[in-house]
Every structure is written in C-alpha cells, then in structure tokens.
Specification:
This protein is of the alpha+beta class and 268 residues long. It contains eleven helices and ten strands. The longest helix is centred in the middle third of the chain and has 15 residues. The chain is globular and about 45 Å long.
Length: 268
Amino acid sequence: MLSALCRSHMISGTIARSCNRLSKPILPIGSLSLPQTSKRTMADDILQNLDEAQVKLLAEQCILVDENDKPIGAASKKDCHLNKNIEQGMLHRAFSVFLFNSKNELLIQQRSDAKITFPGFWANTCCSHPLSRPEELEDEKAIGVRRAAQRRLQSELGIKPEEVPLDDFHYLSRIHYKAASDGMWGEHEVDYILFIQKDVAIQPDPNEIQNTRYLKASELEEFLASVKNNGTKISPWFAMIGATLLPKWWKELNNLDSLVDHSTIHRM
C-alpha cells in the first residue's frame, strides 16, 4: 500500500522522499554501529560507584600467561579481572608475599572495602601483580616478580625497599587458581609464592588495607575455621594455601631452601 502511494504522482515531493527512506532494507541489529559515545558509556557503567583510586589502577598492564606460566601478552588489570574474560581463559601472573617477623609470626592484612575484588577479606601480607614492563617481566630467578613485590609492599604497607632487599625474598613455588569475587569481577592467576622474614615498620595505605595483625602458626587452623564459625571473610587464595601448603612451609622457616620447587605449579 505504502509503495503504491509513493509511486503516485499526487503525493508531494517531501512525502515521496520519506517513503523512499522507508522502503530501504532494514539492517539487522548486529550490523549497526553504535556511536563512540555510547560505547564509552557502556564501559563506564561497569566502573560506576567504584573507588576512584582503585579504578585508576585498573589501567595497569598485567602479564598474560598460558597455563604453564609462559608470557603470551598483556592486558589491563580491568580486563584481567572481568569474569567474562576469565571464563574465556584469560590468565595473568601474580604474587603472594608471606612476611614473617623474628618471632615467626605471619603479617596478614584485611583488604580495604574500596578494593574491587574481595573487599574486606583477610589475606596474606601482600597480593598483587608484576606489570608488563621490562624490569618486572624479567624471569631469571623471578627477579621481575620480586621487584614487583618490593614495589607493592611499599605502596600498600609503607615498607621501605631497603627493609626488604630483593635478595631476601625466597621464591618457593607457584599456584594456579580461579575464584569469582561477585557476578562481575574475579581472579584467575598463576601466583608466585614469596617468603621473607624481617622485622619491619608498617604504615598501611587505608585505600588498600583496613586492618593488619600478626598470626602465630598455632592460630592458623582456628583462623581459617573462623569463616564458618564467625563469618570471617578470608580470600580464596589465602584459604587454599593456608589449608594445604602453608603449614608445612611455616615449619621450615629456617630451612626454606629445602622447600624450593620451581618446576611445579600447584593447581587449586
């Protein structure tokens, strides 16, 4: 009916032009290009209501690895921690520092409520990522990871680099784990385990850490059980390490060289 009207000589040129537009084929939705501003808006929606300082850190470039910890590229911290990417196999390199004092007590931290993944959860001394930059990509004796650990200990806990020399970090082994924090964010990491024993002065950054304490070896089992008994929130990586490998490692603080196993990646 509409096409017939358009062909009629009785209709005005304006209506005819409108009809010509209507008569063009309708493109499928998937072939339409959204305006660039719309794309930015959708990306920004993911970050709405998140802490500004933590959002800035999402631009950092993490090291992408395969399941054997071979570097295969780089991606933003944001992309590495989105569950949709994790479920497609995106995996990045990380580290977990376990710092003990001269009394053999482990310094643990409660993550700030501003953190994007696992806010308010208790974890080991420091957990973060080496970045995709030359000095932290260097693999020889995990020196790049140790540099990143030294950097983050200062950033999170205010521990000066000279208090934790690179040569005093003991790289023991690696774990591979995956855990969702919520419906949007999660973790999927090959995690380097670093032990160091030092008495240090700490000044935690409140945007990173809301609480700290020293834990005795004899308190570990009760602390892990407090998840069920008292509702304590403990990060999945610390819970997994604490329930499996940590008790043995803790007993050998004076003989850490005997624990070194760089060939194994513990799948958890």
